[in-house]
Specification:
With 194 residues, this protein is mostly helical. 77% of the residues lie in helices and 0% in strands. It is built from 8 helices and no strands. Helix 2 runs antiparallel to helix 3 and helix 2 packs antiparallel against helix 5.
């Protein structure tokens, strides 16, 4: 995992900060949705997720040689969360409307997170290498999105069900990419000279 790599190398080299930040926003948003809905499964899972993502952010900040950009992005996250909290709690009085709008926000944000790894699709096909994809993360994404889809179906909650379906689809696409371009296949080779 990225955290393990940071701790082992005491460096953030080749580790992107944005996924930690966006996942933290996602967890905190779903935590708000869970609190508003009084759903203890959403509350528990997203409290743990937000705590872990915050730990990752703090570790990244600690090992990052350029602390200013990391701090600025983290402060921007806090400002966005404060603005969102203000909007959803102060400006929308009706609880059902608040739940619907927060659910829609969480859904759109989750869909964008699931679709973001597809930005590397052209690079993967062009280079015939899945080096930029994480197989363990693909498995975790598939299992999590499948679990949340089933949970959303059980609750008849489209805000939980719908955004997790793209997670299943993109995970299946990434599994296909791993099958099509197996890791290790892209190792450079030197021709033998006679």
């Amino acid at each position: 995992s990225d955290l393990r790599q940071m701790l082992a190398t005491k460096s953030v080299e080749n580790i992107q900060f944005l996924p930690f930040l966006t996942t933290d926003v996602n967890n905190l948003s779903w935590l708000g949705y869970g609190c508003l809905k009084q759903d203890w499964t959403l509350i528990t899972v997203n409290t743990i997720g937000a705590a872990l993502q915050t730990l990752y952010i703090l570790a990244y900040l600690y090992y990052s040689p350029a602390k200013r950009p990391v701090l600025l992005r983290s402060l921007l996250l806090l400002a966005v969360l404060a603005a969102g909290y203000g909007y959803f709690t102060l400006l929308i009085a009706d609880t059902r409307t608040r739940l619907a709008r927060l659910g829609l926000f969480c859904s759109v944000f989750t869909i964008s997170m699931y679709l973001s790894p597809l930005a590397d699709l052209a690079k993967i096909v062009r280079t015939k290498s899945t080096r930029c994809l994480s197989f363990p993360l693909t498995i975790a994404t598939f299992l999590a999105s499948t679990s949340w889809t089933l949970y959303g179906l059980q609750l008849r909650d489209p805000y939980i069900t719908v955004p997790n379906v793209p997670g299943i689809v993109t995970s299946v696409m990434r599994f296909w990419l791993f099958w099509r371009y197996p890791p290790g296949q892209d190792k450079p080779y030197r021709p033998l000279h006679a």
